[in-house]
From TrEMBL:
Keywords: Signal
Entry-linked Pfam families: Mfa_like_1 (PF13149)
Tagged with keyword Signal: yes
InterPro entries: Mfa-like_1, Mfa-like_1_N
Alphabetical list of PROSITE patterns matching this protein: PROKAR_LIPOPROTEIN
Stretch forming the signal peptide: 1-20
Name of the featured protein: Fimbrillin family protein
């Protein structure tokens, strides 16, 4: 499962722009471009299976809206620093930037971001941030586009353990693809896409369940379940096959974490309660980084 928790990215940018002031650090007539010097961020995994740091080759997409037009650029994490794929020039007028993760050349519409849950990728996006030649510092706060569904298991007989085959969330009330409008934040479900969200035991650090074990899945947000059973959660272990109909009226919102306590008694399974909270970073403060030219 490729999952990142909420974090703040501070991009310290060196600027290249035209300048008429001879006393400026830029010579008159020269042209310089925006480049990323460093990216500071703080991530912390809460369940041991989450992706808790950026790795070599990770990529973030930048949707750029400038007075000269729109564009899509790539930030690549290379040799422990972030590198822009192509230079970006700044002028006096604002350039608006939206960031999305992961970078996808096919997902390059200026204000739209397509997400899905079949791959269990943690899609992230930012609100609009504006920069110009006088204000070149870009601070991005990334948000989760999907909803996080967590199951915490409680066993009546704590000596029992089970081997997980899979947990799936599926049904006609669950869309597996959607488009997010980066400007308004509104989400449009894509008709005809109703694939399940699935996590298999072999994808976890351990496929054996004990008292207190937790398993998480990410799903495309659900506006509201119309009828009981429009969405089903399937629990399959080596000695249990159970199906839980998600109650009518249930909402799973973008950027929220829904923690369900699951009671297992012999071959019976019962959902006891649910806790709803913001899906946020549990880490430390962001790292302060110096300027680079």
């Amino acid at each position: 499962m490729k999952k990142k928790y909420l974090f703040t990215i501070t991009m310290l940018l060196s600027l290249f722009c035209a300048c008429n002031d001879s006393e400026s650090w830029i010579n008159e007539g020269s042209e310089k471009f925006l480049s990323v010097a460093e990216v500071g961020f703080s991530l912390k995994s809460s369940d041991g299976t989450s992706k808790s740091f950026f790795e070599e080759g990770d990529e973030i997409g930048l949707h750029i809206n400038s007075p000269q037009g729109t564009g899509y650029n790539k930030l690549n994490y290379k040799n422990s620093s972030w590198v822009l794929q192509t230079p970006v020039s700044l002028a006096e007028n604002n350039t608006d930037i939206y960031a999305t993760y992961p970078y996808d050349l096919q997902n390059n519409v200026a204000t739209s971001f397509e997400i899905e849950h079949t791959s269990q990728t943690d899609y992230l996006y930012s609100e609009r941030h504006s920069v110009n030649s006088s204000n070149p510092v870009l601070s991005l706060t990334m948000k989760h586009a999907l909803a996080l569904i967590e199951f915490e298991f409680e066993w009546m007989d704590v000596s029992q353990a089970a081997k997980l085959d899979f947990i799936s969330i599926q049904g006609q009330g669950l869309y597996s693809r959607a488009k997010l409008d980066l400007i308004t934040g509104r989400m449009e479900h894509l008709e005809g896409w109703n694939d399940p969200a699935i996590i298999y035991g072999w994808q976890l650090n351990s496929d054996h369940f004990y008292d207190g074990s937790k398993v998480s899945l990410m799903v495309v947000p659900v506006d509201q379940v119309e009828c009981d059973g429009d969405i089903l959660v399937d629990f399959y272990t080596d000695n249990l096959k159970a199906h839980w109909p998600v109650p009518a009226g249930t909402k799973w919102e973008s950027g929220k974490k829904y923690s369900y306590k699951v009671l297992v008694q012999e071959r019976l399974l019962e959902i006891l309660d649910v806790r709803i909270e913001d899906w946020i970073d549990a880490g430390t403060d962001g790292i302060s980084l110096p300027w680079y030219e």
